[in-house]
Amino acid sequence: MLTAASRLGILKDHIASRSYSLGIAASSMANSYSLDSKHRMLSGYDIPVLGYGVDSARVYRNEGPCAEAIKNSGLPRSEIFFTTKIPPRSMGYEQAKASIESSFKQTGLDYIDLYLIHAPYGGKEGRTGAWRALVEAQQAGKIRSLGVSNYGVHHLNELEAFIKELEDQNGEGKGGEISIGQWELHPWLTRPEIVKWCTERGVICEAYCPIVRGQRFDESNVQQLVKKFGKTPAQILLRWSLQQGFVPLPKSVTPSRIEENANIYDFELGAEDMKALSTDEYSPCAWDPTTSND
User: Fold this and answer.
1) What pTM, to 2 d.p., does this model score?
2) How far are the Cα atoms of 106, 117, 142, 188, 280 from residue 135, in angstroms, in the given order?
3) Is residue 248 over pLDDT 80?
4) What is the DSSP string of 73-133?
5) Which residues contact 198 (CB under 8 A, 6 or more apart)?
6) How do residues 185-242 score in pLDDT, each as one tens digit?
7) Any alpha helices (H) in 142-254, and if so which ranges?
8) Which residues are part of the catalytic machinery?
9) Other C-beta atoms within 10 Å of 281: how many?
Protein backbone atom coordinates (compact mmCIF):
# COMPACT_ATOMS: atom_id res chain seq x y z
CA MET A 1 0.00 0.00 0.00
CA LEU A 2 1.30 3.45 -0.88
CA THR A 3 2.12 5.82 1.94
CA ALA A 4 0.90 9.40 1.99
CA ALA A 5 4.46 10.43 1.14
CA SER A 6 4.38 8.25 -1.98
CA ARG A 7 1.10 9.75 -3.14
CA LEU A 8 2.45 13.28 -2.68
CA GLY A 9 5.59 12.28 -4.56
CA ILE A 10 3.61 10.97 -7.51
CA LEU A 11 1.61 14.18 -7.74
CA LYS A 12 4.79 16.24 -7.39
CA ASP A 13 6.44 14.40 -10.29
CA HIS A 14 3.25 14.59 -12.33
CA ILE A 15 2.99 18.36 -11.95
CA ALA A 16 6.67 18.85 -12.69
CA SER A 17 6.55 16.77 -15.88
CA ARG A 18 3.29 18.05 -17.32
CA SER A 19 1.84 21.51 -17.81
CA TYR A 20 -1.92 21.30 -18.09
CA SER A 21 -3.97 23.81 -20.02
CA LEU A 22 -7.29 23.22 -21.69
CA GLY A 23 -6.32 25.52 -24.54
CA ILE A 24 -9.94 26.41 -25.13
CA ALA A 25 -11.02 29.97 -25.83
CA ALA A 26 -12.47 31.69 -22.79
CA SER A 27 -15.67 32.40 -24.73
CA SER A 28 -16.35 28.67 -24.99
CA MET A 29 -15.59 27.80 -21.39
CA ALA A 30 -16.62 29.46 -18.16
CA ASN A 31 -13.69 28.11 -16.17
CA SER A 32 -10.23 26.97 -17.21
CA TYR A 33 -8.80 24.46 -14.76
CA SER A 34 -5.32 23.11 -14.20
CA LEU A 35 -3.68 20.99 -11.53
CA ASP A 36 -2.68 24.27 -9.88
CA SER A 37 -6.25 25.60 -9.76
CA LYS A 38 -7.60 26.77 -6.41
CA HIS A 39 -10.85 28.07 -4.95
CA ARG A 40 -10.93 31.00 -2.54
CA MET A 41 -12.83 30.12 0.64
CA LEU A 42 -14.92 32.41 2.84
CA SER A 43 -12.05 32.32 5.34
CA GLY A 44 -9.90 34.14 2.80
CA TYR A 45 -7.63 31.16 2.22
CA ASP A 46 -7.34 29.04 -0.95
CA ILE A 47 -8.05 25.34 -1.32
CA PRO A 48 -6.58 23.28 -4.19
CA VAL A 49 -9.17 21.93 -6.61
CA LEU A 50 -7.24 18.69 -7.17
CA GLY A 51 -3.63 19.37 -6.24
CA TYR A 52 -1.58 18.87 -3.12
CA GLY A 53 -4.32 18.09 -0.63
CA VAL A 54 -4.20 15.64 2.29
CA ASP A 55 -7.62 14.62 3.60
CA SER A 56 -7.13 12.98 6.98
CA ALA A 57 -9.32 12.43 10.03
CA ARG A 58 -8.85 11.42 13.62
CA VAL A 59 -11.13 8.45 13.07
CA TYR A 60 -8.84 7.25 10.25
CA ARG A 61 -5.88 7.34 12.67
CA ASN A 62 -3.71 8.72 9.90
CA GLU A 63 -2.94 12.26 11.08
CA GLY A 64 0.60 11.44 12.18
CA PRO A 65 1.64 9.53 9.01
CA CYS A 66 0.10 12.24 6.81
CA ALA A 67 1.97 14.98 8.65
CA GLU A 68 5.20 13.01 8.36
CA ALA A 69 4.59 12.69 4.62
CA ILE A 70 4.17 16.45 4.37
CA LYS A 71 7.48 17.02 6.16
CA ASN A 72 9.29 14.49 3.96
CA SER A 73 7.74 15.57 0.66
CA GLY A 74 10.28 18.27 -0.12
CA LEU A 75 7.42 20.66 -0.77
CA PRO A 76 6.91 23.91 1.14
CA ARG A 77 4.30 23.50 3.87
CA SER A 78 2.34 26.36 2.31
CA GLU A 79 1.80 24.29 -0.85
CA ILE A 80 0.16 21.34 0.92
CA PHE A 81 -3.42 21.65 2.15
CA PHE A 82 -3.99 19.53 5.26
CA THR A 83 -7.49 18.61 6.44
CA THR A 84 -8.59 16.71 9.51
CA LYS A 85 -11.87 16.18 11.34
CA ILE A 86 -13.46 15.99 14.78
CA PRO A 87 -14.69 12.38 15.13
CA PRO A 88 -18.33 11.59 15.97
CA ARG A 89 -17.32 10.38 19.44
CA SER A 90 -15.66 13.69 20.30
CA MET A 91 -18.62 15.99 19.88
CA GLY A 92 -19.22 18.67 22.50
CA TYR A 93 -17.01 21.58 23.55
CA GLU A 94 -14.57 19.86 25.89
CA GLN A 95 -14.27 16.70 23.82
CA ALA A 96 -13.73 18.65 20.61
CA LYS A 97 -11.19 20.91 22.28
CA ALA A 98 -9.24 17.83 23.40
CA SER A 99 -9.51 16.37 19.89
CA ILE A 100 -8.06 19.53 18.35
CA GLU A 101 -5.18 19.57 20.84
CA SER A 102 -4.48 15.92 20.11
CA SER A 103 -4.34 16.65 16.37
CA PHE A 104 -1.50 19.08 16.93
CA LYS A 105 0.32 16.60 19.17
CA GLN A 106 -0.09 13.85 16.56
CA THR A 107 1.01 15.98 13.63
CA GLY A 108 3.50 18.46 15.06
CA LEU A 109 2.14 20.98 12.56
CA ASP A 110 2.16 24.71 13.31
CA TYR A 111 -1.28 25.12 11.81
CA ILE A 112 -4.05 23.06 10.22
CA ASP A 113 -5.51 24.32 6.94
CA LEU A 114 -9.01 22.94 7.38
CA TYR A 115 -10.74 21.33 10.35
CA LEU A 116 -14.18 19.78 9.81
CA ILE A 117 -16.84 18.28 12.03
CA HIS A 118 -16.93 14.75 10.60
CA ALA A 119 -20.64 14.04 11.12
CA PRO A 120 -23.68 15.76 12.67
CA TYR A 121 -24.00 13.39 15.62
CA GLY A 122 -24.03 14.22 19.33
CA GLY A 123 -27.24 16.26 19.38
CA LYS A 124 -27.52 20.03 19.10
CA GLU A 125 -25.39 20.66 22.19
CA GLY A 126 -22.67 18.37 20.89
CA ARG A 127 -22.65 20.00 17.44
CA THR A 128 -22.66 23.58 18.67
CA GLY A 129 -20.08 22.82 21.37
CA ALA A 130 -17.74 21.29 18.81
CA TRP A 131 -18.15 24.33 16.56
CA ARG A 132 -17.35 26.69 19.43
CA ALA A 133 -14.12 24.78 20.09
CA LEU A 134 -13.18 25.08 16.42
CA VAL A 135 -13.89 28.80 16.37
CA GLU A 136 -11.67 29.35 19.41
CA ALA A 137 -8.84 27.40 17.77
CA GLN A 138 -9.26 29.43 14.59
CA GLN A 139 -9.17 32.71 16.50
CA ALA A 140 -6.00 31.50 18.24
CA GLY A 141 -4.37 31.04 14.83
CA LYS A 142 -4.17 27.26 15.04
CA ILE A 143 -6.74 26.53 12.32
CA ARG A 144 -7.14 28.55 9.14
CA SER A 145 -10.54 27.42 7.85
CA LEU A 146 -13.56 25.61 9.30
CA GLY A 147 -16.25 23.41 7.86
CA VAL A 148 -18.56 20.46 8.27
CA SER A 149 -19.01 17.03 6.74
CA ASN A 150 -22.17 15.03 6.15
CA TYR A 151 -24.50 17.75 7.42
CA GLY A 152 -28.09 17.82 6.21
CA VAL A 153 -29.81 21.12 5.42
CA HIS A 154 -31.44 21.07 8.86
CA HIS A 155 -28.01 20.73 10.48
CA LEU A 156 -26.66 23.56 8.31
CA ASN A 157 -29.55 25.83 9.30
CA GLU A 158 -28.94 25.03 12.96
CA LEU A 159 -25.25 25.89 12.65
CA GLU A 160 -25.97 29.09 10.72
CA ALA A 161 -28.27 30.21 13.55
CA PHE A 162 -25.61 29.33 16.14
CA ILE A 163 -22.96 31.32 14.29
CA LYS A 164 -25.29 34.33 14.45
CA GLU A 165 -25.73 33.76 18.19
CA LEU A 166 -21.97 33.76 18.68
CA GLU A 167 -21.66 36.96 16.65
CA ASP A 168 -24.41 38.62 18.69
CA GLN A 169 -22.53 37.69 21.85
CA ASN A 170 -18.95 38.33 20.76
CA GLY A 171 -19.08 40.67 17.79
CA GLU A 172 -19.25 40.45 14.02
CA GLY A 173 -17.01 37.76 12.54
CA LYS A 174 -16.56 36.05 15.90
CA GLY A 175 -18.81 33.09 15.15
CA GLY A 176 -16.63 31.46 12.53
CA GLU A 177 -17.63 30.76 8.95
CA ILE A 178 -18.55 27.56 7.13
CA SER A 179 -15.90 27.60 4.42
CA ILE A 180 -16.23 23.98 3.30
CA GLY A 181 -18.87 21.28 3.32
CA GLN A 182 -17.86 17.71 2.54
CA TRP A 183 -20.36 15.17 1.23
CA GLU A 184 -20.62 12.09 -0.93
CA LEU A 185 -21.40 13.70 -4.29
CA HIS A 186 -21.60 12.14 -7.74
CA PRO A 187 -24.16 11.77 -10.56
CA TRP A 188 -26.15 9.23 -8.53
CA LEU A 189 -26.20 11.42 -5.43
CA THR A 190 -26.32 15.08 -6.49
CA ARG A 191 -27.88 16.44 -3.26
CA PRO A 192 -29.46 19.51 -4.96
CA GLU A 193 -30.89 21.00 -1.75
CA ILE A 194 -27.54 20.88 0.05
CA VAL A 195 -25.62 22.17 -2.97
CA LYS A 196 -28.13 25.02 -3.37
CA TRP A 197 -27.77 25.95 0.31
CA CYS A 198 -24.00 26.10 -0.06
CA THR A 199 -24.00 27.95 -3.38
CA GLU A 200 -26.24 30.68 -2.01
CA ARG A 201 -23.80 31.27 0.84
CA GLY A 202 -20.49 30.82 -0.92
CA VAL A 203 -19.68 27.53 0.82
CA ILE A 204 -17.45 25.26 -1.27
CA CYS A 205 -18.53 21.62 -1.64
CA GLU A 206 -15.96 18.84 -1.41
CA ALA A 207 -17.03 15.57 -3.02
CA TYR A 208 -15.91 12.30 -1.48
CA CYS A 209 -16.51 9.05 -3.34
CA PRO A 210 -16.61 11.08 -6.59
CA ILE A 211 -15.99 7.95 -8.68
CA VAL A 212 -18.52 5.91 -6.66
CA ARG A 213 -15.86 3.35 -5.70
CA GLY A 214 -15.91 2.16 -9.29
CA GLN A 215 -19.40 0.73 -8.87
CA ARG A 216 -20.94 2.68 -11.78
CA PHE A 217 -18.19 2.50 -14.38
CA ASP A 218 -20.28 0.25 -16.64
CA GLU A 219 -23.36 2.48 -16.67
CA SER A 220 -24.41 3.36 -20.22
CA ASN A 221 -24.29 7.12 -19.64
CA VAL A 222 -20.70 6.80 -18.41
CA GLN A 223 -19.60 4.46 -21.19
CA GLN A 224 -21.00 6.75 -23.88
CA LEU A 225 -18.76 9.55 -22.64
CA VAL A 226 -15.79 7.20 -22.24
CA LYS A 227 -16.06 6.41 -25.96
CA LYS A 228 -16.71 10.01 -26.94
CA PHE A 229 -13.69 11.49 -25.15
CA GLY A 230 -11.31 8.54 -25.02
CA LYS A 231 -11.08 8.84 -21.25
CA THR A 232 -11.52 6.37 -18.40
CA PRO A 233 -14.74 6.23 -16.38
CA ALA A 234 -12.90 7.68 -13.38
CA GLN A 235 -11.70 10.64 -15.45
CA ILE A 236 -15.20 11.28 -16.78
CA LEU A 237 -16.68 11.29 -13.27
CA LEU A 238 -13.92 13.49 -11.85
CA ARG A 239 -14.37 15.95 -14.71
CA TRP A 240 -18.12 16.04 -13.98
CA SER A 241 -17.36 16.83 -10.34
CA LEU A 242 -14.87 19.51 -11.31
CA GLN A 243 -17.32 21.22 -13.66
CA GLN A 244 -20.01 21.13 -10.98
CA GLY A 245 -17.71 23.41 -9.00
CA PHE A 246 -16.88 20.73 -6.45
CA VAL A 247 -13.50 19.84 -5.00
CA PRO A 248 -13.31 16.09 -5.78
CA LEU A 249 -11.53 13.83 -3.31
CA PRO A 250 -10.55 10.67 -5.21
CA LYS A 251 -8.71 8.01 -3.25
CA SER A 252 -6.31 5.48 -4.67
CA VAL A 253 -3.23 3.50 -3.59
CA THR A 254 -2.19 2.70 -7.17
CA PRO A 255 0.44 5.03 -8.72
CA SER A 256 -0.99 4.73 -12.23
CA ARG A 257 -4.48 5.60 -11.01
CA ILE A 258 -3.23 8.59 -9.03
CA GLU A 259 -1.71 9.91 -12.26
CA GLU A 260 -4.87 9.02 -14.16
CA ASN A 261 -7.02 10.91 -11.67
CA ALA A 262 -4.87 14.00 -12.16
CA ASN A 263 -5.08 13.86 -15.95
CA ILE A 264 -8.49 15.48 -16.43
CA TYR A 265 -7.56 18.92 -17.72
CA ASP A 266 -7.30 18.30 -21.46
CA PHE A 267 -11.02 17.88 -22.16
CA GLU A 268 -14.33 19.44 -21.23
CA LEU A 269 -17.79 17.95 -20.85
CA GLY A 270 -20.39 19.93 -22.75
CA ALA A 271 -23.74 20.99 -21.33
CA GLU A 272 -25.48 17.98 -22.89
CA ASP A 273 -22.78 15.64 -21.56
CA MET A 274 -23.24 17.00 -18.03
CA LYS A 275 -27.00 16.63 -18.33
CA ALA A 276 -26.75 13.07 -19.67
CA LEU A 277 -24.49 12.05 -16.81
CA SER A 278 -26.60 13.51 -13.99
CA THR A 279 -29.46 11.45 -12.54
CA ASP A 280 -32.28 11.86 -10.03
CA GLU A 281 -31.13 8.84 -8.05
CA TYR A 282 -30.41 8.99 -4.34
CA SER A 283 -27.90 6.17 -4.10
CA PRO A 284 -25.14 6.56 -1.50
CA CYS A 285 -22.23 4.14 -1.73
CA ALA A 286 -21.00 5.09 1.76
CA TRP A 287 -22.65 6.19 5.01
CA ASP A 288 -25.22 8.99 4.96
CA PRO A 289 -25.40 10.96 8.23
CA THR A 290 -27.22 13.82 6.46
CA THR A 291 -30.52 12.15 7.31
CA SER A 292 -29.78 11.94 11.03
CA ASN A 293 -32.25 13.65 13.34
CA ASP A 294 -30.06 13.22 16.43
Assistant:
1) 0.89
2) 20, 12, 10, 34, 36
3) yes
4) SSS-GGGSEEEEEE-GGG-SHHHHHHHHHHHHHHH--S-EEEEEE--S-SHHHHHHHHHHH
5) 181, 204, 205
6) 999 999 999 999 999 999 999 999 999 999 999 999 999 999 999 999 999 999 999 9
7) 153-170, 192-201, 220-229, 233-243
8) 60, 118
9) 12
